[in-house]
Amino acid sequence: MATRYLGLMSGTSLDGIDAALVQVDERDGRLGAFLEAFLSLPYTSDQRQAIKEALTGTPQQLCRVNFELGGWFAEAALRLLEKTGVAAAELAAVGSHGQTIWHEPPSGDVPGGTLQLGEPAVIAERLGVPVVSDFRARDMAAGGHGAPLVPLIDQLLFSLPDGWRALQNIGGMANVTLLPPEASPQPVIAFDTGPGIAVIDAVVELLSAGAERYDADGRRAAAGAVNGELLVRLLDDDYFREKPPKSTGRERFGEPYARELIRSGRELGMGDDDLVATATALTARSIADAYELVAPESTPNECVVSGGGARNPTLMQMLAEALDPVPVTDLSALGWDPDAKEAAAFAILAYLFRTGRPGNLPSVTGAAGPRVLGKLTPP
Q1: Per-residue confidence (pLDDT) for residue 139, from 0 to 100
Q2: Fewer C-beta neighbours within 10 Å, C or N terminus of the chain?
Q3: CA torsion angle for 167, 170, 172, 177 (degrees, to 10)?
Q4: How much is the average pLDDT of 286-313?
Q5: Domain ranges in the chain?
Q6: Going by C-beta distance under 8 Å and a sequence separation of 6 or more, which residues neighbour residue 268?
Q7: Do domains 3-147+341-377 and 151-334 have the same CATH topology?
Q8: For residue 297, what pLDDT band results from cuts at 50, 70 and 90?
Q9: Could you give the CA distance from residue 258 to residue 23 in angstroms, rounded to a whole number?
């Protein structure tokens, strides 16, 4: 019998909270999931500013935004339930990723750390249901990167019977899951390829003095010209040469990175739209180069894109050109809303937690072994 779980996610793009209502069941030992409904609740400008300030803020700011985020996450969940007519009491649990404030992968002998805010007690109090949260910490405690976590869900739901498939998410950062054929003994390959739309968004916001938050429909990038010299410089980054497991975030590809991109571009005489076009090409090319770096013998049959980047037609076109002849499509081709996958994944990870099963792929994260991920806040 299917059970309902609600997943909550806010990514590094800081655009809002995604809420996904998912029915999960198992038949003959195979996990099944059906996306029942999805809602995205945009942050207000004040909310977004509060989160950005918390990234480098005081303990007081962190404390306040943690509880505020809990309330905002609860509101997103309640709005989705109202939209669908489903009562909170019908949920088995909520899986809340929270908002990443800082994520620092391990490096050599130096352990990593991660911090997601969005107080689960506030969500549990307002909804009256169990909340599973803090999914990344246990993997990192076991020596892993705590990311990416979605690949296990990709493997369970989207593997092809007879070929490789790339599940490419383009949120603030971009991450890929390279899925071997279902019966193959080869491991899943997954990692953060680098910047997704965070650098593009930051460039647009800086160029427009805050009047624009993102490149709507990829229009700026389409109007500009990619500067090959700058693109080569941007791709000459140690991160792109690292072998997985690896993960990254705004700590590396955030606003300071975008400011340096603009400064370098101005020295080359580039106009505003050319800068946006080059930032967009950086995302597309770094994704394509990553596939060749880690799995040249495992060319995917197709690349299926999810996340906010799937809504940028110029980025999608650049990615298709960079990956040619591999066809590029978005997750709607598999019957899923491209924006919903990550929130849905945390609903399913909550299911795995509640049933006592691992939620990580050690071959992907680098953890010492499979671990049950998450912490429970009772209703």
Answers
A1: 96
A2: N
A3: 20
A4: 89
A5: 3-147+341-377, 151-334
A6: 227, 229, 230
A7: yes
A8: low
A9: 40
Residue 31 neighbours by CB distance under 10 Å? 17
Whether 29 has a pLDDT exceeding 80, the answer reads no
pLDDT digits (tens, 9 = 90+) for 177-205: 999 998 888 889 999 999 999 999 999 99
Would you state the pLDDT for residue 296?
Answer: 63
Do the beta carbons of residue 34 and residue 336 sit within 8 Å? no
What CATH number was assigned to the domain covering residues 3-147+341-377? 3.30.420.40
Burial of residue 64 (number of CB atoms within 10 Å: 0-12, 13-18, 19+)? middle
Judged on CB neighbours under 10 Å (0-12, 13-18, 19+), 56 is exposed
What does the pLDDT read at residue 326? 95
Q: Does position 242 have pLDDT exceeding 70, yes or no?
A: yes
Domain 151-334, architecture per CATH: 2-Layer Sandwich (3.30)
Average pLDDT over residues 101-114: 87
Residue carrying the six token digits 């990514």:
11
